[in-house]
């Protein structure tokens, strides 16, 4: 897939920002970002975890952001240091990826539980007792896809395809009702990554899995132009509609376009502040009822 490169004029705000971003990313230690994945897969880490979220149960998601950032810098700047870090990180992932394809910063325990028993526990931010595991693993899926598309890394696609095959196989016999129950927990852009994989490979199993990751409780009302957003955690919903928009691009199904456009128009016209952000305390409010306060306009959005 050909992706256009953008040249920035030197000594401008944008070029300076790009240079600063590259400098920051190159300061990160890939072995520390890989550490929770080593632990989750039964290996001894070669460096300590970073702190913050990377020292908690959501650990591993920053690795995906790191891959995506490096891939972007390789594509836009050609910096050999970014290339070396990207290739090194992808190579280490391949070395420890589980035989069945699983890879992540948390054990596969919550996914196994959801696949094995329809009585699994689920809440908005918890699946089988684990904090948003799909959300965390999604970042690695997305980072590897970017490593392939933007970083021209020849190993990344094979790794993420194995991860995808693990998920397809694990949930092959899971009922649609149980799968939808699982989607109550925040799951990031899993619909989008499977749609992207279908776009890259033309494998029907990835399209089928992308459509399984359509969260019916949120998307189906939008297909009918009904607003189900008030009271919902805002940044949880945005990736769902990005995924449905990508599925429209790939399938042409009009209901997918309707849902994506309805979401965009509703949020833009009735729930967005003049400065461009939305949500109050991370949650959508009723249309035209979002009062300005100190906790508006979550940056995630």
Overview of the structural elements:
The protein is mainly α. It has 13 helices and three strands; from the N terminus they run αααααβββαααααααα. A three-stranded antiparallel β-sheet has the order 1-2-3. A hairpin with a 2-residue loop joins strand 2 and strand 3. It is globular, with a radius of gyration of 19 Å. The model has no long low-confidence stretch (mean pLDDT 96).
Quick overview of this protein structure:
The chain is mostly helical and 301 residues long. 57% of the residues lie in helices and 2% in strands.
User: What amount of the residues lies in strands?
Assistant: under 5%
Unreliable segments (pLDDT under 50, ≥5 consecutive)? none
Distance between the termini: 28 Å
- The chain-level structural class is mainly alpha
Number of DSSP strand runs: 3
Strands side by side in the biggest sheet: 1-2-3
Instruction: Give the topology string: H per helix, E per strand.
Output: HHHHHEEEHHHHHHHH
Helix content: 55-70%
Mean pLDDT reading:
96
Q: How many distinct helices? A: 13
Q: What is Rg? A: 19 Å
| Major sheet summary line | 3 strands, antiparallel
Question: Quick one: overall form?
Answer: globular
List the helices and strands and how they pair.
Blueprint: H1 13-27, H2 30-40, H3 61-77, H4 80-96, H5 109-116, E1 122-123, E2 126-127, E3 130-131, H6 133-149, H7 156-170, H8 176-182, H9 190-201, H10 204-212, H11 216-223, H12 234-251, H13 254-270
Antiparallel strand pairs: 1-2, 2-3
């Amino acid at each position: 897939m050909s992706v256009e490169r953008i040249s920035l004029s030197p000594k401008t705000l944008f070029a300076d920002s790009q240079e600063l971003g590259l400098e920051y990313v190159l300061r990160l230690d890939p072995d520390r970002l890989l550490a929770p994945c080593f632990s989750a897969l039964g290996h001894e880490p070669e460096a300590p975890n970073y702190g913050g979220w990377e020292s908690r149960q959501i650990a591993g998601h920053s690795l995906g952001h790191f891959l995506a950032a490096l891939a972007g810098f390789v594509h836009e700047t050609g910096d050999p240091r970014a290339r070396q870090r990207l290739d090194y990180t992808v190579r280490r992932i391949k070395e420890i990826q589980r035989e069945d394809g699983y890879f992540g910063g948390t054990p596969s325990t919550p996914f196994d539980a959801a696949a094995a028993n329809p009585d699994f526990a689920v809440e908005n931010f918890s699946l089988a007792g684990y904090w948003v595991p799909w959300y965390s693993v999604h970042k690695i899926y997305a980072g590897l896809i970017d490593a392939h598309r933007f970083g021209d890394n020849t190993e990344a696609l094979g790794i993420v395809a194995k991860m995808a095959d693990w998920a397809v196989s694990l949930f092959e016999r899971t009922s649609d009702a149980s799968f939808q129950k699982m989607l109550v927990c925040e799951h990031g852009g899993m619909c989008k990554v499977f749609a992207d994989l279908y776009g890259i490979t033309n494998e029907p199993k990835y399209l089928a899995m992308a459509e399984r990751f359509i969260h019916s409780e949120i998307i189906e009302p939008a297909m009918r132009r009904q607003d189900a957003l008030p009271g919902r955690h805002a940044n949880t919903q945005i990736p769902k509609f990005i995924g449905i928009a990508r599925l429209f691009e790939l399938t042409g199904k009009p209901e997918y376009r309707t849902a994506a456009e309805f979401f965009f128009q509703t949020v833009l016209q009735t729930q967005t502040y003049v400065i461009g952000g939305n949500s109050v305390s991370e949650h959508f409010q009723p249309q035209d009822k979002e009062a300005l306060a100190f906790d508006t306009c979550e940056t995630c959005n």
